[in-house]
Amino acid sequence: MTDPKKTITKAVIPAAGLGTRFLPATKATPKEMLPVVDRPAIQYVVEEAVKAGLNDVLMITGRNKRALEDHFDRVPTLEIQLAEQGKDSLLKTVLDSNDLGELHYVRQGDPKGLGHAVLRAKVHVGDEPFAVLLGDDLIDEKEDLLSEMVRVQQKTGGSVVALMEVPREQISAYGAAAIEQVEGEDFFKVSELVEKPSAEDAPSNYAVIGRYVLSPKVFEVLENTAPGRGNEIQLTDALQTLAADESEGVYGVVFKGRRFDTGDKLSYLKANVILASEREDLGANLLGWLKDFVKNK
Ligand code: G1P
Predict the structure, then answer these.
(1) How far is the CA of 174 from the centre of ligand 1 (A)?
(2) CA-CA distances (angstroms) from residue 249 to 116, 252, 296?
(3) What is each CA distance from 272 to 157, 266, 279, in whole angstroms?
(4) What pLDDT was estimated at residue 5?
(5) Distance between Cα 291 and ligand 1 center (Å)
(6) Disulfide: which of 130, 195, 238, 282 matches 221 by Cβ 3.0-4.6 Å?
(7) CB-based contacts of 184: which residues, under 8 Å, 6+ apart?
């Protein structure tokens, strides 16, 4: 029998997208491998899952995504060379990127949408609640959003989405949620979810950001979810079904911390500048240069 409150140990990271917004950089390189400062974007996401105690990470990949598996694997010749040259801190960064949980990979095959990608995790996940992390969203390393969502899932037994207030004119880029206060709690009940509504039709300006902790019931629902927006099987539509199911329910944790979007060029560039400006080894030089650059532009 399903025990919705089983401990959560698994994270699923959909990474099969073609990354067309970054062509030609993504012709031969997965978009998840584009560096944010000096780590590929996907590494931040895997680190976030492991930090929240989700050690078993399943990536949903596709063609041309082999670099993802290589990145998280050992490179013995490089490790030996760095050790021999006494480059200890570089060696540590290489070893750290191999030592991130237990990674598994499955291919999506047909690109039929986010819901379809998540459904590919069914056999691996089985009958336990699990997290989904979307690679385009980076959450500030100082935040504990995922742990908080796990806590809410364990308390409610339902599914949990991360929400962020956005200006109404931006809501059409996201799933939007109507929410209701839960007496005495700091999370919300989600009464309605709509994938990428127009500003006029949106039930609110609470956007679903790319973190979910889901009941395994979602698999059965996804199997019966018809293609929606963009003719793709939408995770948001499956969550709407769960929200309407009294025995399941969807809850929202409103995130007020920093989220970096690496999904389009401008926000990707901003994420690089912000995160580099906070680095001990780069920040002061970068900011000094940037101020001069902007002044003389
Ligand atoms: C996906 C989801 C959307 C969500 C968004 C968060 O959309 O379908 O509901 O708000 O991620 O980043 P995508 O950005 O993949 O089009």
Answers:
(1) 5
(2) 21, 10, 55
(3) 37, 10, 11
(4) 61
(5) 34
(6) 238
(7) none
Question: Which one of 208, 218, 222, 239 would you pick to mutate in the ligand 1 pocket, going by the greatest count of ligand atoms within 8 A of its CB?
Answer: 208
What pLDDT sits at residue 88? 95
Task: Give the pair of three-digit tokens for residue 20.
Answer: 């067309």
Q: Is the pTM of this model over 0.85?
A: yes
- Which domains does the chain possess? 10-263 (3.90.550.10), 273-297 (no CATH)
Task: List all residues whose CB is within 6 A of at least one atom of ligand 1.
Answer: 114, 134, 136-137, 174-175, 195, 207-210, 235-236, 263
User: Phi, psi (5° rounding) for residue 150?
Assistant: -60, -45
Is 50 exceeded by the pLDDT of residue 1? no
Cβ atoms within 10 Å of 260's Cβ, excluding its own:
20
Confidence of residue 111 (pLDDT cuts 50, 70, 90): confident
Q: CA-CA distance, 241 to 250, in Å (whole number)?
A: 9
